[in-house]
Amino acid sequence: MKEVIERYPQNPFLTPDMIPGANAVFNSSVTRFGDKYVGVFRVEKRAGFQSLRVAWSNDGINRWKFDSDEVLVPTEEPFKTYEDARYDPRITKIDDTYYICHASENRYGCQVSVASTKDFKKFSKIAVASEPTNRNMVLFPEKIGGLYVRLDRPFESGGGGNIWISYSPDLVFWGRSEVLMTSRGFAWDQGKIGPGAPPIRTDEGWLCIYHGVTPRINCKIYKAGVALLDLQDPRKVIARSKEYIMAPREDYERVGDVPNVVFPTAVIPYPEKDELRIYYGGADTVMCLATAKISELIDFAKNK
Ligand code: BMA
């Protein structure tokens, strides 16, 4: 059967042996920056800590050059208390500013933080933007009705979790939170689900790639799906794929520190080619790439 996504033949494109002192590089975000690409990478050190590192590439795939220092290290309160470990970054560009949302793990649980940068050299922390326990915050690339909009995944008891939507005037104070999409009993996304890449605008709605878990006796299998949200009112789910768009199949998705994980964290659209790049972590160890036709993903979301 033809898949809706196509894996990059040279996957994984980034591995820990390419970064001195790294145990793993995964669940990272890449975006366009002028005529180049920049990424904020989740690099787990051999000493065991998570770090966020900026790297640059001409084509967004090869020859990544890492800046020397880790970024978004907290130096002041409240970030020192709540950002013990920083991981799973997602980048959204709004106007001329890039926003980085990431998980902030701390003694109270996990929260989400948001920071901004214009050049990926100097970063400003904006807020720890949720109570515990929450992960996977992604920002929409434009305000809707004058407000910033985000998706995230608060945890629920019993290891579950659904995708929520919230609004904010300033990225600090969030409200009007409601459930957007729930896990589906006995389907591939019957376990917890969470936002993957930040949504992108298409003619047919906001295209959202998300992750969903299939729980099995000895593991959780992380897969990816696609949904479409109404452009004017993204609380309305227009379409959602019955099947996953991607499940762990290749060795680099099956074998690693956490087996059987594909975890999408960024997309880059090329509308002129009807193409979408999907960046994802493989088995919590390496960075991978897949491509898809935007029109085919939309049809897939509509189960056509
Ligand atoms: C999730 C997050 C991700 C990770 C995934 C699989 O809960 O921690 O960072 O990729 O589990 O281990």
Distance between the termini: 15 Å
Ranges with pLDDT <50 over ≥5 residues? none
Q: Which structural class do the helices and strands define? A: mainly beta
What gross morphology would you assign?
globular
Written account of the structure:
The protein has 304 residues and is mainly β. It has one domain (5-301): Tachylectin-2, Chain A (5 Propeller), CATH 2.115.10. The protein has three helices and 21 strands. It has helices at residues 79-82, 251-254, 294-301; strands at 5-7, 22-33, 36-45, 50-57, 65-71, 85-94, 97-106, 109-117, 123-128, 134-139, 148-154, 163-168, 175-181, 193-195, 200-202, 205-216, 219-229, 237-240, 262-270, 275-282, 286-293. Strands 14, 15, 16, 17 and 18 form a five-stranded antiparallel beta sheet that branches. It has a four-stranded antiparallel beta sheet with strand order 1-21-20-19. The chain has a four-stranded antiparallel beta sheet with strand order 2-3-4-5, with no helix packed on it. Strand 15 (200-202) and strand 16 (205-216) form a beta hairpin. It is globular and about 50 Å long. The two termini are 15 Å apart. 47% of the residues are buried. The mean pLDDT is 97. Bound molecules: beta-D-mannopyranose. Residues 27, 88, 222, 258, 261, 263, 281, 284 line the site of beta-D-mannopyranose.
